[in-house]
Structure to design on (528 residues):
């Protein structure tokens, strides 16, 4: 297992973002993390890379507790907004992150060049990041993680703002990385990307709605495409979450759709049935 | 240690890309000292006495501001969070910043002292010690700025930290009034503020003292630097809410 999460609970700003989450990410695969805005995707990723405070429960990454110093060389994290130095050139950024990852100065040039070609930014070496487009910046941010050659990549919405050609190319890169034994946890809200994943984790209100393969998702919901399958699941979960005596289901099944989870939701926290459909988008994104 | 140098190199590369800031840091103190020299044209004593003191004060103010804004920018741009997922240690981060700004302040000190001497400033003590004190003060300003940026949530707050932390030191450091003439409580206050010792060392150098005359003050500045580094490291958090 690349990531093993058990009984994870995270409180942010006095609000319980994640309550009692159990998730497994197998090694050597691409696992997609899906869910409405505010469902806890970013918080889960931050817990996995060890920068999230007020975490309880078990988060094990590559066999060690999340946030262990030895993991920092083995795990790459790309935040939702491009987090690179906009006043430096692309090459300067990548060279710095390669140095941080311990790439010796002799091999750094080659590592930088390889990461740049992975994200299709060849020829932009000398360009200051601030002069790049939004999509190019997020690719620099991704390259800054790739340059460290991590065993596990945690990518928060890496394809936002990219055109279809680039998205396809990046997903090809992700598949190649997985084929070479790397593990990837990728959040996305572009549903047709879901079909590129080996497994899908569907979050809603900090709970797991489904842990399923893309094929099984379509099959079990009977929806014609991933987007409608996703909506069907979320709507079902919202409807179930609105009923006060809902039972919390914390399965670890590896094949099917869980019973909709109503995490830590007492009668007082319940939502009237009529408002249930807007429930998932009610909260600010948890970042 | 390698990561300290990598970080210092990265910060210096960022500074190199920002020529206007470098120009401000180097040219502004020269302009101010030029103003003073001009104002007291007929009394060379003033430049001899206050020139070195100003050379010791500028780096504190400038490096404090530059570092607190730079660190805040790292927090807000998400690069700090990202760094915290890499093998860099918090000490590497703080030391990298301090090292980069020490290089910048050495440049500042060389230009400002050179300019002051050209204007007619006559330092009785050894000139190289003026550089040493100026660089130490710069490192101090840098480390204080790192600590202060942890308390600031916005750019507005970060900029306001400057008057909050630097102005009381300016008022009590002995520049406005000799410290032995201050009310007793203010004199005590001045003893726990680091700028006092920088001004003291510079005043002694201006008066012709050698290393023996300033080693106590330099030692205290060193202790403050260590304290500020520890504070800077402690206020950096790997895990945030």
């Amino acid at each position: 297992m690349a990531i093993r999460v058990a009984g994870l609970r995270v409180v942010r700003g006095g609000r319980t973002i994640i309550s009692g989450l159990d998730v497994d990410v197998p090694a050597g695969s691409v696992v997609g993390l899906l869910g409405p805005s505010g469902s806890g995707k970013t918080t889960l990723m931050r817990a996995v890379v060890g920068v999230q405070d007020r975490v309880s429960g078990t988060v094990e990454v590559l066999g060690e507790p999340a946030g262990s110093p030895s993991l920092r060389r083995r795990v790459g994290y790309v935040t939702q907004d491009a987090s690179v130095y906009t006043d430096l050139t692309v090459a300067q950024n990548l060279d710095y992150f390669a140095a941080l990852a311990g790439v010796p100065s002799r091999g750094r040039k080659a590592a930088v060049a390889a990461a740049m070609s992975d994200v299709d930014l060849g020829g932009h070496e000398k360009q200051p990041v601030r002069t790049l487009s939004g999509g190019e910046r997020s690719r620099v941010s991704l390259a800054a993680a790739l340059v460290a050659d991590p065993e596990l990549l945690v990518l928060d919405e890496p394809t936002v703002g990219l055109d279809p050609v680039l998205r396809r190319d990046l997903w090809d890169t992700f598949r190649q990385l997985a084929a070479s034994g790397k593990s990837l946890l990728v959040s996305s809200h572009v549903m047709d990307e879901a079909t590129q994943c080996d497994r899908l984790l569907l979050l809603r209100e900090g709970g797991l709605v489904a842990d399923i393969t893309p094929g099984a998702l379509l099959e079990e919901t009977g929806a014609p495409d991933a987007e409608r399958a996703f909506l069907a699941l979320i709507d079902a979960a919202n409807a179930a979450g609105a009923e006060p005596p809902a039972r919390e289901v914390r399965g670890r099944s590896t094949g099917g759709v869980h019973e909709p989870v109503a995490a830590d939701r007492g009668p007082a926290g319940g939502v009237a049935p009529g408002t249930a459909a807007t429930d998932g988008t009610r909260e600010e994104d948890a970042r | 240690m390698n990561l300290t140098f990598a970080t210092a190199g990265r910060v210096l590369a960022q500074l190199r890309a920002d020529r206007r800031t470098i120009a401000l840091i180097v040219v502004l103190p020269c302009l101010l000292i030029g103003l003073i020299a001009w104002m007291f044209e007929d009394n060379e004593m003033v430049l001899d006495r206050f020139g070195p003191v100003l050379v010791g004060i500028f780096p504190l103010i400038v490096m404090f501001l530059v570092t607190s804004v730079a660190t805040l920018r790292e927090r807000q741009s998400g690069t700090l969070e990202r760094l915290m997922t890499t093998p860099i240690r918090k000490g590497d981060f703080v030391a990298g910043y301090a090292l980069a700004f020490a290089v910048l302040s050495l440049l500042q000190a060389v230009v400002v002292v050179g300019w002051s001497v050209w204007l007619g400033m006559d330092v009785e003590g050894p000139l190289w010690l003026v550089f040493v004190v100026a660089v130490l003060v710069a490192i101090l300003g840098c480390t204080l700025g790192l600590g202060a940026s942890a308390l600031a949530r916005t750019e507005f707050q970060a900029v306001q930290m400057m008057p909050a932390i630097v102005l009381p030191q300016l008022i009590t450091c002995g520049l406005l009034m000799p410290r032995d003439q201050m009310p007793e409580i203010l004199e005590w206050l001045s003893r726990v503020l680091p700028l006092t010792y920088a001004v003291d060392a510079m005043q002694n150098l201006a008066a012709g003292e050698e290393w023996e005359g300033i080693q106590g003050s330099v030692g205290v500045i060193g202790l403050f630097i260590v304290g500020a580094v520890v504070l800077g490291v402690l206020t950096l958090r790997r895990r945030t809410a």
User: Anything to note?
Assistant: Chain A is about 30% helix and 20% strand.
